[in-house]
Amino acid sequence: MPDAALEALQPHPAGVAWPAPTWARRDAQPRDAASFAEHANAIFDLTPVQGVTYALLVVQRGELVYERYAAGANNFYLQYSWSMAKSITHALVGIAIRQGRLDLHAPAAVPEWHERGDARRAITVDQLLKMRSGLQFCEDYVDGTISDVIAMLMFQGRRDTAAYAANKPPEHAPGEVFSYSSGTTNILCRILRDVIGGASEMSAFMRDELFDPIGMDSVLPKFDHSGTFVGSSYCLATPQDFARFGYLYLRDGQWDGRRILPPGWVDHARTETYADAEQAYGAHWWLAPHDHRVFHAGGYDGQRIIVDPRRDLVVVRCGRTPVTEMPDVTARINALMEAL
């Protein structure tokens, strides 16, 4: 059931054009303009250890109120999604469910798990979305000797990312333990490929049902050799198009009179399924650990699409910042949002 504390999702403001093909624009009108400028500058004024911010976009009440680029980037420059693609995968699964092609609570159709007595046969689509499959998978981005995600994306698993993940043994009963896993997402993407009809059909499905209707014209999804969308990690787009995707979730999956996502699907994404002192998770979307009213798509090196229904706000940050330095950058983004 949706969390009773979830912030209500507001409709698109009357009199403001939907951002397809272009965003309606105005300058930000913060409570304290000097404070807003200071926080925006701070997101770009990083030390060499903290890395670099390529792009920062702020959308409030349907209008693009702040847009800035640095380090050679511009509004046509495609940025890596990294794991923000997982949230795009959540949308694609939702569309397939709305169309009756998938059952959220049914066991996932994975050929590697077909043997009678295989405990993995009980894993559901919902458990995959909530990162509770129980499968063994090491999500490490540094140590290539232990990392499953490096092996899956770059070495022995790269030709068939889903097969690599699906062949992992179970460590826990399905549903019992949260374990963030890029392999889990690629299993979902192969399931989508199979129910949609194949790689070319999947590509057309993504564009016809999600990207084109909301004006995401720049998107470049990557597929592995088996024809599976590598939805764990690889979906390039301009920051403006990432903002469009966030805006779809801010508007409860509806776009200019058309329902893209099934009713309640955004709540599915932002309802807490795991939390500790430092992080919280819904379903292929992260939650602010101490304020679940805010949720975000997050990716390696500090990629963010932040959705804040209370402030009617979407913030996109693209850059390169090590995970150890992201708490400071996140604090600067939060301060910027508070200034609005």
Can you describe what's shown?
There is one protein chain. This protein is of the alpha+beta class. Helix content is 31%, strand content 16%. It contains ten helices and 13 strands. It has helices at 33-44, 84-98, 125-129, 148-154, 161-166, 182-196, 199-211, 239-250, 265-270, 326-339, and strands at residues 24-25, 52-60, 63-69, 220-221, 235-236, 254-255, 258-259, 274-275, 280-281, 286-288, 291-299, 303-308, 313-320. The strands form three sheets. Strands 1-3-2-13-12-11-10-9-8 form a nine-stranded mixed β-sheet, with helices on both faces. Strand 12 (303-308) and strand 13 form a beta hairpin. Helix 1 (33-44) packs antiparallel against helix 10 (326-339) and helix 2 runs parallel beside helix 6. The longest helix has 15 residues, at 84-98. It is globular and about 65 Å long. The mean pLDDT is 96.
Radius of gyration: 19 Å
End-to-end Cα distance, whole Å, is: 31 Å
Strand order of the largest sheet: 1-3-2-13-12-11-10-9-8
Order of helices and strands: EHEEHHHHHHEEHEEHEEEEEEH
| Class per helix and strand makeup | alpha+beta
* SS field, number of helical segments: 10
Percent strand equals 15-25%
Instruction: Provide mean pLDDT, rounded.
Output: 96
What helical percentage do the residues reach?
25-40%
Strand segment tally: 13
Provide the low-confidence segments as ranges.
Answer: none
Largest sheet: 9 strands, mixed
Query: What general form does the structure show?
Result: globular
